[in-house]
Each structure stands twice: as C-alpha cells, then as structure tokens.
Design brief:
Layout: E1 3-12, H1 18-35, E2 38-43, E3 47-55, H2 56-68, E4 72-82, E5 94-97, H3 103-108, H4 122-141
Parallel strand pairs: 2-5
Antiparallel strand pairs: 1-3, 1-4, 2-3
Length: 143
C-alpha cells in the first residue's frame, strides 16, 4: 500500500457556516477513520488549510471530492508526496481554529500576523500544521 500526504488550501464559500463546519467535522472523522485517513484542518472564516494522509487511493478520492464540494473554492494543492510515516497518526481529523493561534505563530511560518494559507510555501504549511497538532496534543494531555 502506498501512503501519501497531501496539503491544500481553499477559500470557504457562503455555503459553509459554523454549523455546517461542525457537521462536516463529525462526518469526516468517522469516514476518515474507516478509510484510514488521518490529518489536520486549520480553519478561519475565510480559509481552510488541511493536510490529509493515508492510502493513496483514499486520499486522492477525498481530495477529488473536496475539489467538487460547493463549500470550497480556489482549491490549491500545496504538497503531495509519498511518505513512510504519518505526521498526524493520532488524528482522524484534528481541528484548529485560526483565531486560537497567536499572530507570532503565523509570522514564524511566513504569514503576516493573520491567517493567510495562500502565503505559505508547501514546507511552511507542513511545518505550521505539525506545530499546531503538537500544541493541540499538549493541550489535550493537560486536560
């Protein structure tokens, strides 16, 4: 089985409000677990930055669905590669709201103090998401 990691950005459309996003997360976590997909989603009211990892066929199929989803527009693939290990193995879909991230964190990864995933390189986006997942894991461990 070929394992891949895919990172993309997109803009939210008016069809995706907070309630719709919560519903999508619940369904995605269940579906991803069944398809052996892991990853993280960073959300801002205007943008998504997401990493998906898992079996190549399953990740490709999910990304194809995202590209056709009316809640996304301007979908841009930042990175796609085969991998031996997962970076988000513990997460069927970790979720981090951009409002919970400090402006200094964005600046560290090429941003301008606000969430603009289109300004990130593929390497910056990957490191950014790994750092977010690590912080989220630390927060959950402290609860």
């Amino acid at each position: 089985m070929h394992m891949v990691r895919l990172v993309y950005v997109s803009r939210m459309t008016e069809e995706c409000d907070t309630e719709a996003l919560q519903k999508v997360l619940k369904i995605s976590r269940s579906n991803n677990k069944a398809k052996d997909i892991t990853g993280i989603l960073c959300y801002d009211p205007a943008f998504f930055l997401q990493c998906l990892e898992g079996p190549r066929e399953a990740v490709n199929q999910l990304y194809s669905e995202i590209q056709r989803d009316p809640r996304h527009k301007d979908v841009v693939l930042l990175d796609y590669c085969e991998v031996a290990d997962r970076k988000f193995a513990d997460w069927s879909m970790a979720f981090v709201a951009a409002g919970d991230i400090s402006p200094q964190t964005f600046e560290t990864y090429g941003g301008k103090g606000k969430f603009d995933p289109y300004a990130l390189s593929a390497a910056e986006a990957s490191r950014f998401l790994v750092q977010l997942a690590a912080k989220e894991q630390t927060l959950l461990a402290g609860q």
